[in-house]
Design a protein that fits this description.
Chain lengths: 287, 263
């Protein structure tokens, strides 16, 4: 039997959980469907969303994908945010916790977007210091996601080297968003396949896929990470390449705008799941 | 190459709309033509904050329409950028902001619609707590010498609001997605509104002035006797027995063994 089949749990595909789909997710019989949430949306005193998440989490894998830690920022980590996140982790015990190699706050103001870092030695040191503090604060390792690049900021190293070095120094893992790699390569000119080849498989704990859009003014020359459409054919092919290179990993389908019905979203998730299941079959056949 | 701090100063200033895209040029590879590309960061930031306001104030957004609300939201975001890393409760001061801008929008009742949206959101997000059931209330009143001295605490989701204009019915329609197509005729006539969460859903009810006075007195930690006296001074025909029974049945009060104040 292959290593993959001996793994404690075979990686499957999940979806970003939206309130519109709470009931359908709770009632679906597919217990291999795992869900991911932004913990910031659950940083409330109480309310129905916690009731839903508690019920959905029962018997189903869950991951937390944070957007507010600003690990790449120069501000000190927000202790209020960190303590709320820790409380949620203790409450829901997610299988994975992830964040971004980006920043979203500066001098106390939250900019509600993931803003770009320069890939410099100073930025890397700052990011690693914050990852260390973050991991100590929440008491577990975190996966760090590659950003979407829109502009060619002056840098001292390429992105795979930057992220791999951050993982090596801090012990964190990586969340590889292949849609982000695809968009970044298109927007700033890089080889997405070479990017994947530079990422060690053992560092990757999760993969994201999502849809993107062409810029309304610049058209196909400039792609936007909209999370508002189906995954493009190019990204599906790229996902297969990435999984082939990295081995089976949990794959998460993100959708944050133009949210379709649960049935439509699940069909798209099932396509990703089928790729993972095919990998199991191949692995089994060659063993 | 600019320092990391300079990098963030330039980008945050640009994202906040305080500087032009060209100010980012020193951060780019040489010879790169920025064009309109940098706007993606400013637009994404603004869009996320605007959507949070739209989600937190759905009735207000519905009556204002997308363009009007978007314009107002942009002004608000410029003035009150988020501080917390979660946008779930963002827009704490939007009601006051809309009220202060009345000379511009000329809709005197608009801030009342926003106030009800805000109260609904607060009720929706409030912490959970065990409620006092009718049998708990009966037991409580049985074991005290003087019921008038009993003090009741509301569950955390309870909100009492007074609006200056008669917008309650309009607001309820807006929450259902029904936007009036005719001229609005809200009257400058105060309405008292109770909001609370029961069975995972926010409940709303319009109150009479006497009912409101009774509940407001309880909210201020007044004893039942004091609250009753205040309410009866407004409406001598108010049935306090019915009001108490209805509010206990609605799950407004904290279980006697719980420790929690109210708001």
């Amino acid at each position: 039997m292959s290593t993959v089949l001996n793994a404690p749990s075979l990686p499957r595909a999940g979806i970003g959980l939206k309130p519109e789909h709470y009931r359908e997710v709770l009632e679906t019989g597919d217990m291999d469907l795992w869900v991911e949430v932004h913990p910031e949306n659950y940083m409330t005193d109480g309310g129905p969303r916690h009731d839903w998440l508690t019920a959905i989490r029962e018997g189903r894998d869950l991951s937390f994908h944070g957007v507010g830690a600003s690990l790449g920022g120069t501000d000190t980590l927000d202790t209020d945010h960190l303590s709320k996140l820790k409380a949620l982790i203790e409450r829901y015990c997610p299988e994975r916790v992830s964040e971004h190699a980006a920043w979203c706050a500066h001098e106390g103001t939250y900019y509600s977007d993931l803003l770009p870092l320069p890939r410099t030695a100073a930025a890397l040191t700052n990011l690693c210091d914050h990852i260390d503090q973050f991991q100590n604060g929440i008491g577990q390792t975190v996966l760090i996601e590659n950003p979407t690049n829109y502009l060619p900021f002056t840098s001292e190293m390429d992105e795979p080297d930057f992220l791999v070095e951050a993982a090596r120094r801090t012990g964190c893992g990586l969340l590889l968003d292949v849609n982000n790699v695809w968009i970044s390569a298109h927007n700033v000119g890089a080889d997405p396949y070479d990017y994947i080849r530079k990422i060690p498989s053992h560092m990757v704990g999760e993969i994201h896929i999502a849809g993107h859009a062409e810029d309304p003014n610049l058209g196909g020359k400039f792609l936007i990470d909209s999370h508002g459409a189906s995954v493009s054919d190019g990204v599906w092919t790229f996902l297969e390449f990435a999984l082939g290179k990295l081995g089976p990993k949990p794959v998460l389908l993100e959708r944050d705008a133009n949210i379709p019905t649960f049935e439509i979203l699940k069909l798209e998730r099932d396509r990703a799941d089928a790729i993972l299941l095919d990998m199991r079959e191949v692995s089994h056949a060659v063993t | 190459m600019r320092s990391l701090k300079d990098h963030m100063e330039l980008i945050s200033s640009f994202v906040a709309g305080q500087s032009a895209p060209e100010t980012l040029a020193p951060l780019m590879e040489p010879e790169f033509d920025l064009g309109p590309r940098a706007m993606v960061y400013r637009n994404s930031s603004l869009s996320a904050a605007t959507e949070a306001l739209r989600s937190n104030y759905p009735g207000t957004a519905a009556i204002m329409g997308a363009d009007f609300f978007g314009s107002m939201a942009r002004s608000y975001i410029d003035a009150y950028r988020p501080k917390a890393r979660s946008l779930v409760g963002y827009g704490q001061t939007l009601v006051q902001f809309i009220s202060a801008a009345q000379s511009e929008h000329r809709l005197a009742w608009l801030s009342d619609v926003a106030a009800l949206d805000r109260a609904w959101l607060e009720a929706h997000l409030a912490s959970d707590q065990s409620i006092m059931l009718p049998e708990d209330f009966a037991e409580l009143t049985d074991r005290v010498d003087n019921v008038e001295k009993v003090r009741l605490s509301f569950v955390p989701s309870v909100r009492l609001r007074v609006v200056s204009w008669s917008v309650f019915d309009l607001w309820q329609e807006l929450r259902k997605g029904q936007v009036p197509t005719q001229q609005l005729d809200a009257l400058q006539s105060p309405e008292q509104v109770l909001l609370w969460r029961s069975e995972h859903e926010v409940q709303v009810r319009k109150l009479s002035a006497a009912e409101y006075t009774f509940l407001q007195a309880l909210l201020e930690q007044g004893a039942l006797g004091v609250a009753a006296e205040s309410a009866l001074a407004i409406d001598g025909n108010l049935s306090l027995q019915n009001l108490l029974a209805a509010t206990v049945a609605a799950g407004l009060y904290v279980h006697p063994n719980s420790k929690r104040g109210n708001q």
